[in-house]
């Protein structure tokens, strides 16, 4: 994720970019199911196709929907934090709940001036809809089915929008040579022409499958003009894009482009689907223009606090090493958090820590020690020695790290050097919740690691994934390693256009996205819901633990020992629904799962249809 590059410097780029290419791929295995340390196969046996009944074990989503919450399907959607949700919602209570099937308006199937975000005409008898009421598509997250648009779309309703076209820019920063070399060495690199082909294929697909109101979305690729880790270059590129190309929306396919880039676009009125897990304050300052696929920073802290308060507080640290664990000694919590890179301090680091302390106070928990660090590969040894020493002196026996994915390499090695074996709580932040990075951490330490993750149980085969099937519906050539990563920002861009209605501008785009009901909440499909407060996609979590003796493929399809298990058949939890029992981890996990065999896509191509002779968009012609 390039947001990490911007924050933490060029060294991290070598590892982070390769992970960013594949970590969000729902299917990245090569048929390898993996085995648990007990020798059992870590494959889901829960049934049910996506879009049908919830898998055995439940979604982990419970509680009543909030009164006055956003609607758009059959279920009202409350907030995840108890506040107002989105511009269309009032006060709400209870956790977000997923909508299984869309409901449609009654009446004529005619588009009128009253139609827009959250208000669409009923599909007509000739409208092809999926069985769950969504647009025909492979993805569970396909938007609500609407009749084909006809009439006056308003023409040039916003910058980058005309009567017959919408401009979408794909930002392609310059590539660091070391990153390219590393990716090539481990087989994770994709040639630029492969990525270009995939981007064009997705744009072509969604133009014909989602409603764009008589406008064809046209893809323009903009190449970065300088060093990929330079804020000055990012700002200059954003200015050029906004003032010369004048698009409606900008995406970054591989990951994110940092605050400098997205902030400059927002200041100039351009939507940017190009960030990763920034603070609510940042998203509020750049609203309604900046969005993320992963949770916001505060959502990580809220869920960790709830988990600790319900499941760990006043209980022994039973999975810590014997030299740390004292008989009947309750857990004492420590936080390690990133607060900048080199000499540059990011205020989100301190703000996030203070927010976390406030959330913990609700459960009567106080951090025994909180230590921030700045990413500086040259200072990692000195920093790691100091950090681990402070944790030891404070008597901490549970450590969590809101940090980049590289520093745990140094921190865990230093903990072993100092003979310190605490429980390591995985917060799911910045790829630390992956098998790939877990194998790079000191295994004497990581065998004590457990926690949570917003990621999901990946499929055993990429061929079952949404990105793969969507791409091959319109393209025959090789899809590339990162096909599911590249799909996400383009699909989100089109979904926002679909939900906005014909009067397309940044306000209606965001209102439409916020009004859309929550979808997912399953073993291999996370709960997705955008809100004004938290304009990130994923709203639920799965419990995880490190199986030091388990074997299987990592996110780069590399076989090896040590895997990140998802607990309890991959059941997912929204904020406010974490159980109060002891964690389902290690021997206490009743049903660990590593890869899933459940279908994660709809058979949209079962009839063998193609779109070779289709007009440039669904309602163009």
Describe the structure.
The chain has 621 residues and is an alpha/beta fold. The chain folds into 2 domains: 57-171 and 184-295 and 462-515, Response regulator (Rossmann fold), CATH 3.40.50; 298-453, Response regulator (Rossmann fold). The chain has 16 helices and 16 strands. The chain has helices at residues 2-8, 10-22, 177-186, 192-209, 231-245, 258-267, 280-285, 297-312, 347-361, 380-393, 407-417, 435-438, 443-446, 466-472, 483-500, 506-515; strands at 165-172, 216-223, 249-251, 271-275, 290-292, 333-341, 344-345, 369-375, 398-402, 423-426, 449-453, 458-459, 540-553, 559-566, 572-574, 595-596. Strands 6, 7, 8, 9, 10, 11, 13, 14 and 15 form a 9-stranded mixed β-sheet that branches. Mean pLDDT is 83; it is low at 1-33 and 38-93.
């Amino acid at each position: 994720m390039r947001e990490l590059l911007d924050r933490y410097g060029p060294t991290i780029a070598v590892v982070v970019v390769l992970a960013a290419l594949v970590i969000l791929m729902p299917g990245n295995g090569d048929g390898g199911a993996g085995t648990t340390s007990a020798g059992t196969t870590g494959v889901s046996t829960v049934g049910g196709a996506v879009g049908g009944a919830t898998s055995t074990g439940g979604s982990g989503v419970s509680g009543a929907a909030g009164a006055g919450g956003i609607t758009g399907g059959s279920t009202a959607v409350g907030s995840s934090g108890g506040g107002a949700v989105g511009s269309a919602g009032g006060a709400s209570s209870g956790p977000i709940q997923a909508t299984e099937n869309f409901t449609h308006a009654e009446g004529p199937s005619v588009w009128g001036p009253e139609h827009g975000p959250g208000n669409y005409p009923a599909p007509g008898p000739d409208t092809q809809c999926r069985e769950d009421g969504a647009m025909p598509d492979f993805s569970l997250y396909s938007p609500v089915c609407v009749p084909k648009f006809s009439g006056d779309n308003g023409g040039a309703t916003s910058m980058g929008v005309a009567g017959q076209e919408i401009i979408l820019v794909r930002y392609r920063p310059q590539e660091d040579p070391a990153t390219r070399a590393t990716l090539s060495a481990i087989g994770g690199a994709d040639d630029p022409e492969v990525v270009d082909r995939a981007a064009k294929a997705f744009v072509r697909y969604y133009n014909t499958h989602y409603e764009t109101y008589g406008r064809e979305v046209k893809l323009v690729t903009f190449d970065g003009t300088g060093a990929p880790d330079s804020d000055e270059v990012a700002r200059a590129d954003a200015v050029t894009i906004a003032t010369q190309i004048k698009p409606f929306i900008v995406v970054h396919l591989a990951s994110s482009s940092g605050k400098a880039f997205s902030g400059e676009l927002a200041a100039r009125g351009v939507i940017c689907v190009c960030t990763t897990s920034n603070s609510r304050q940042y998203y509020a300052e750049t609203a309604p223009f900046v969005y993320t696929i992963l949770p916001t920073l505060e959502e990580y802290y809220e869920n960790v606090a709830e988990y600790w308060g319900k499941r760990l507080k006043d209980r022994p640290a039973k999975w810590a090493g014997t030299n740390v664990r004292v008989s009947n000694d309750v857990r004492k919590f420590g936080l390690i958090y990133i607060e900048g890179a080199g000499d540059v301090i990011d205020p989100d680091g301190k703000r996030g820590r203070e927010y976390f302390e406030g959330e913990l106070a609700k459960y009567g928990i106080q951090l025994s020690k909180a230590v921030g660090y700045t990413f500086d590969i040259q200072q990692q040894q000195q920093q790691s020695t100091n950090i681990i020493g402070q944790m030891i002196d404070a008597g901490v026996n549970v450590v969590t790290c809101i940090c980049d994915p590289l520093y745990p390499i140094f921190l865990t090695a230093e903990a072993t050097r100092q003979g310190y074996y605490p429980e390591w709580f995985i917060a799911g932040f910045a790829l630390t919740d992956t098998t790939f990075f877990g194998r790079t951490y000191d295994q004497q330490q990581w065998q004590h690691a457990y926690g949570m993750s917003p990621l999901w149980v990946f499929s055993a085969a990429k061929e079952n994934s949404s990105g793969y099937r969507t791409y091959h519906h319109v393209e025959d050539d090789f899809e590339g390693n990162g096909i599911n990563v590249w799909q996400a920002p383009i699909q989100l861009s089109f979904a926002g256009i679909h939900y906005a209605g014909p009067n397309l501008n940044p306000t209606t785009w965001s209102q439409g996205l916020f009004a859309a009901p929550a979808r997912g909440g399953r073993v291999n499909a996370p709960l997705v819901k955008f809100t004004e407060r938290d304009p990130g996609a994923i709203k639920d979590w799965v419990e995880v633990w490190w199986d030091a003796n388990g074997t299987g493929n990592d996110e780069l399809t590399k076989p090896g020992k040590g895997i990140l298990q998802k607990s309890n058949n991959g059941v997912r939890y929204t904020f406010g629904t974490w159980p109060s029992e002891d964690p389902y981890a290690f021997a206490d996990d009743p049903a660990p799962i590593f890869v899933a065999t459940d279908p994660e896509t709809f058979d949209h191509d079962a009839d063998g249809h193609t779109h070779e002779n289709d007009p440039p968009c669904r309602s163009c012609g």
